[in-house]
Design goal:
- With 241 residues, the chain is of the alpha/beta class.
- The protein has one domain (2-209): Spore Coat Polysaccharide Biosynthesis Protein SpsA, Chain A (Alpha-Beta Complex), CATH 3.90.550.10.
- The protein is built from eight helices and twelve strands.
- The strands form three sheets. It has an eight-stranded mixed sheet, with helices on both faces. Strands 2-7 form a two-stranded parallel sheet.
- Residues 235-241 have low confidence and may be disordered.
Amino acid sequence: MKLLISIVTHNQASLVQSLLDSIDLFLKSELHEVLIVITENDLYDHNLNSKNFKVTHINNLRKKGFGDNHNSVFEKFDSDFFFIVNPDIILKEEFNLDLIVEHLVEKEIDISSPQVFNNEGIVEDYKRADLSFLNLCKRKLLNNNLENFDWLAGMFLIIKSDSFRKMKGFDTNYFMYVEDCDLCMRAREAGLRINDIDDFSVVHNARRSSANNIEHLIWHISSILRYWFIRKVTRIINYKN
């Protein structure tokens, strides 16, 4: 099978190289063809490479959002499984792609994620409830990781390519935020299976850009408002039908 790993960076060369170094140390696959595609939204660095896996670089002529960038990579390269990996992810233990693919095929899981920890070894809130106002408040106050969750955060997603194609990828009308929630919720409504993988984990050094950057904060809020509006309209349409 062809495994496509998409990494989008915004002038984050040191982060991406650390990720690639950890991939060289811990990523294993004897059965599958692995291609890593690095999309640079800002400054282009040709020196970002892996010792063990093929790396292709894309340099944007204009800045794109999270979903738009990953959709573009998906459309350019053939794959059976599509890995979406944030640049602030690090592998710190063996990550066996052969076992992961076997598990996803056997369990018929369409969208998945490894367990995600922070640098202190605490589980991140990568499994989340639907983006209602009440759930957002609970997440800020409790910062809890859910067993019964609605969607998986886009810091590290593994998606069957046929399923991603069926969903027509991310909704590019969002910009930088909420694309992951929207994709998972649409997938659930389409009857696709979403679950995380117990036996594999990664470390996430969260940037939290929207908390420190007014432009990112505006994008985040506008994406949430758009999501609420679309969900409300969808519920009205479904109720009438």
